[in-house]
Fold this sequence. Notes:
The structure is a single chain. Helices cover 71% and strands 0% of the residues. The protein is an all-alpha fold. The protein has a single domain (26-57, 74-336), classed as Mitochondrial carrier domain (Mitochondrial carrier fold). Helix 8 packs across helix 10. The chain is globular, with a radius of gyration of 22 Å.
Amino acid sequence: MSTKAEQMEEIETAVPNVARVPAQNNVAFAWFAGSLASCGAVTFTNPFEVVKTRLQLQGELAKTTPNMVRTYHNVAQAFWVIGKNEGLRGLQKGLGPGYMYQIMLNGTRLGFYEPAKNMLYRLFTGQASNTQKSIMPLNVAAGGLCGVAGAALGSPFFLVKTRIQSASSFAAVGFQHNYKGAVDGLRRIWREGGLRGLYRGMDAAMMRAGAGSSVQLATYDHFKSYISRNLAHRGLTDNSAYTHFLASMGTGFFVCLVMNPFDVVSTRMYNQKAASGGAHGGALYKNPLQCFYKTVTTEGFFSLYKGFLAHYLRLGPHTILMFVFVEQIKALGARYL
């Protein structure tokens, strides 16, 4: 009786033209790995997302004055105030819809980044991306496309997450929607605005994710390649967790630098009250460009960088954890699948 290995060899010999794709290189596996890794990462970084949201909404469309009363002064103080008055549950507000958003956004981004990159390389160079030197503009374009697609899919979850995170009985900032939870929020949004209500602010989220994703995926690729190429003699190979950690650290800063203005606009577009009388748009901003304009002219240019440190403290560790997790999941896939 032949062994299992011999049977597999007979099958491969009998069907020589069937290409076997390793599980870790499969789009479905990459989507699963990206979803699982990002959910793991957001579990640890969600408290900084709560802090960032409140810092970005504080003082919305109000001119800064020396006597202005601010509940939240900086990241550490805001973290302390929220934790003291609302407990761990307050710091983890919006975690449920946050998981769903991560699955939609990062499952799509990480699952389809390589196929999108290959498509662009073949379109512009006639060759697959893994057969030649990395071309940064094409990597940026692939990351941007995947980010926009993921943001569109996850927009309703980001919407309800933002509104839940901004709510506080102790120190209200921005409009207070007071949802009982994610399901209650989605139900109320649908009842008040239908499908259009669920996707209000999606254009701002697509700009945000497109800008962040184009930088994140392309710079991570570049940093990882650079480190493994120049520091392989010190053990920092392409598959090393230390390489993934260092590449993620560099990536997180640049992503935050590019993305923060879009993040402020996205947060405000999502959290604003709906326009009265059933009119299209929100009560404060009709579209992202108007939000940019009104924010800068009222609060100054640097208002677009409100919550920057909280954003990096959320995004930096999230980027590190997500990429380290996803690389380890892929390694397990290569070993066992």
